[in-house]
Every structure is written in structure tokens, then in C-alpha cells.
Write a structure and sequence with these properties.
The protein has helices spanning about 50-60, 65-75, 95-115, 135-150, 160-165, 170-180, 195-205, 210-220, 240-245, 260-265, 275-299; strands spanning about 1-5, 20-25, 45-50, 80-85, 125-130, 155, 185-190, 205-210, 220-225, 230, 250. The protein is an alpha/beta fold and about 300 residues long. An eight-stranded parallel barrel has the order 1-2-3-4-5-6-7-8, surrounded by six helices. It has a three-stranded mixed β-sheet with strand order 9-10-11. It contains eleven helices and eleven strands. It is globular.
């Protein structure tokens, strides 16, 4: 399974330190003036999602045209493969069947717009991605097949964040339904749980993205792999330090590690203060999370 790091413009530029980096960007997570030309080097592959999750939380409803123009602007000048998601409609937390059906219909309408209208203005290196949204396994299967019938050949499965935390079996059931409907060219949007990422790799999903390396780094969390382990810094001033890491052992001194940060000075991981320290831990965490996911697939 290919691992994409979910990135914002305050995060470290991972491809400065690692080869074969794949990145996902949500337009609302970068400034309006930012574009990929700001990077000193390009990632191997890029996905630009629609930003639907962030727009939904902010109570905003941009048009498909506005979203597509921003996606093209973000990726301008990049010669590597870029996947862009149509403006999808979230189904997370929807209980009313009529509301769910209305959202499903709108999602498919906006998907059809991109593949019939938006595709005409896309550079050759950009591939469209149909986003599968549904309130249950049956809708996931139906939407996936409908997107394939429109002509989509790449897919993403959304509205997973809450279920990753509270209903992991449901995530796997929805994934299996999507796999049955359209095959393995599926990207899993926003999966933070390492056990779920490992399970998805074993199922044969093509790719997934996660912001876990920097999110955990900001909470004082440190990853190691082979086997995968999470430790916490000996400093409880971090927000959510107790709740997120009540199970984790305190790391008093760095363990052996070949990542670029530890090659330079492993004690940098233990600095509890400042954005630079968070970014260095994020680089270290990325190295180990990616090793673990790739190892899960190999196994």
C-alpha cells in the first residue's frame, strides 16, 4: 500500500529528507497564495482532495468550479502524477434516510460534473478521483459502481475519521464493499489509526493518507517500528498527553534509529518545546509509520 503524508504549509517538507514521498493536500489547509512551486523539490505523487471535510466544518459551500480551479492552481507546474478528488458530500453522522439519499445524489451529481465538464481543462498529468461516500455498506457499494459507470478509474473512500476511532470493523466492511465494487485502485482518506492502516494494507488497498506523524508529534508522541510502538515524552504539558497516551511508556532516552533526525542528533526528539522540535519528531514518526505500513503489506 502506498502511504501519503497529509500535509499543511506549516509541516516539514518530507521530500527534503526522504525519497519517494507521496503527499496529500486539502486546499483549506494551505494559504490561498501557496502552490507546489513553493516546495524545494516535488513529491513522487500528489493527491489534492476537495477540502470537503474542512468546508463542512466551517459551514462553507463552494461550487465545484471554484474547488477545481483552486486544485489546478495548487498543482500548477508539477510534472509528477496528480490525483484530484471531485467536490464530495460528506455522509458522516447522517441518520435521516431522506437526508442521506439527498447527499448521495448531490455527491454523484458533482462527480459527474468533474468527469464530464471539469476534465476538459485538466493538464495531462492530472487524474480524476471519484470519492465514495455513503451511510452504510450498501450505499458504499452502489456509489462505487455508479462512479465506475461514469468513467472513474481511481477512487477514494471518505467519511472514515469518526469510524476509525469508534467502529473499526465498520471501516473494514465498507472497504471490502468498495473493493468488491471497483477493485483495488482505492485511496483511503484520513486514516490516523495505525492498526487500521495495517489492516488496509493487508486487504490490498492501493493507498491511504494520514496526518498521524505530526499530530502525534505535537502531542508528545514518538513512533518506532519493527515492531511498531508508540512512546511519549517525559513532559505532561502536552495537550491530550494523558488521554492519548495513557497506555504509552515514557521514553527517557532515544532508541536506535536510522532516520535523518536521529542520524543527526537523536536527542532532538526529546525536546518538548517549539515548532521545530515538533517537526523533527514528525519526520522521525513518518519514517517509522511508513516502514510499518510497507512491512505490513509485505507480510
Amino acid at each position: 500500500m502506498k502511504y501519503f503524508i497529509s500535509w499543511t504549509h506549516s509541516d516539514p517538507v518530507y521530500q527534503r529528507y526522504f525519497t519517494d514521498v507521496r503527499t496529500l493536500i486539502s486546499p483549506p489547509n494551505v494559504s490561498l497564495t501557496w502552490h507546489v512551486g513553493r516546495w524545494p523539490s516535488a513529491p513522487t505523487e500528489l493527491i489534492v482532495d476537495s477540502g470537503a471535510f474542512q468546508y463542512h466544518r466551517a459551514g462553507r459551500s463552494p461550487s465545484p468550479e471554484v474547488v477545481l480551479n483552486r486544485q489546478i492552481q495548487l498543482a500548477a507546474g508539477l510534472n509528477t502524477v496528480v490525483g484530484i478528488c471531485h467536490l464530495d458530500v460528506l455522509n458522516a453522522g447522517v441518520h435521516d434516510p431522506a437526508d442521506a439519499l439527498q447527499r448521495l445524489t448531490q455527491n454523484l451529481t458533482q462527480a459527474r460534473w468533474l468527469i464530464e465538464q471539469g476534465s476538459n481543462v485538466l493538464p495531462e498529468n492530472i487524474e480524476v478521483i471519484g470519492v465514495i461516500q455513503g451511510k452504510d455498506v450498501e450505499q458504499i457499494f452502489y456509489v462505487a459502481q455508479a462512479l465506475a459507470a461514469m468513467g472513474y478509474q481511481r477512487f477514494a473512500l471518505g467519511s472514515l475519521a469518526g469510524k476509525v476511532a469508534n467502529a473499526r470493523d465498520e471501516v473494514l466492511r465498507r472497504t471490502e464493499a468498495a473493493l468488491e465494487a471497483v477493485g483495488s485502485r482505492i485511496h483511503m482518506l484520513g486514516v490516523s489509526s495505525v492498526p487500521v492502516l495495517e489492516a488496509l494494507a493487508r486487504l490490498g488497498i492501493e493507498s491511504a493518507d494520514s496526518g498521524a506523524p505530526i499530530k502525534d508529534a505535537a502531542r508528545g508522541g514518538i513512533f518506532y517500528s519493527e515492531p511498531f510502538r508508540r512512546y511519549k515524552l517525559p513532559s505532561p504539558h502536552f495537550r491530550e498527553w494523558q488521554r492519548s497516551y495513557s497506555f504509552a511508556e515514557v521514553l527517557e532516552s532515544p532508541l536506535p534509529c536510522a532516520c535523518p533526525v536521529c542520524h543527526d542528533d537523536p536527542n532532538q526528539l526529546l525536546n518538548p518545546h517549539g515548532k521545530l522540535a515538533v517537526n523533527l519528531r514528525a519526520l522521525h514518526n513518518y519514517y517509522h509509520l511508513r516502514r510499518d505500513i510497507e512491512g505490513s503489506q509485505a507480510g
